[in-house]
User: Fold this.
Amino acid sequence: MSARLDWEDPTLREWDCTVLSSDPEAGIVLDRSAFYPGGGGQPPDHGVLLWQGVQTRIVDSRKGDAISGRPSYLIPAPGDPVPPAGTTVRGAIDDERRSTLMRTHSGLHILCGTVFRDFGALVTGGNMQPGEARMDFNLPEVPPGFKQSLEDAVNAEIAADRKIVARILPRDEALQIPTLVRTQDALPPLGEPEIRVIDIVGLDVQADGGTHVASTAQVGRVEVVKVESKGRQNRRVRIRLAPA
Assistant:
């Protein structure tokens, strides 16, 4: 498996590494990678590999599987040259895309924690793109003024500048956290001896494999764009990062 530099340091944007395997169709496997491979609603990183005066654009990736031993791999832009196995390359991530996704993802966790704290509602679905996202909740009824009061509550948590801490815990220890899984129909990651947990200190703790900012204040202001009814039991909340 490739070393997960995106977990070790989510602020890392450039690093040196070695190509373990390479194919224009099957993708590129690195010995160490800071590319987030996608998952949990967060899209994968984009960027480039630089090698011997050549640039390979990375436009997608696929997540590996520790149980089967299948590594994560990068997908090059069609027609771009790919570095052969054994080549030393320099990876570079699209900083604006990654940084905006980190803020967006942390904003979703703040939203999730706020709704769970105030309404006890579990998540039934979600998705994000850089700067905007939606999350669905098992929330049959909402009070008058819900949209504005929710926006105010989320931004109060952002202003509180709570630390956001990533930890990898032994499975048995992680399963003792009552809020580990906030998605209604999901189960804790199966077969993994360790589980990665994101802790917004004092607000939200749950299993998550994505990249996040270091504190809620780094998210910036969030706007609740729309609250929609998606069936008798579900409400969809759409958010976006407010302009700086």
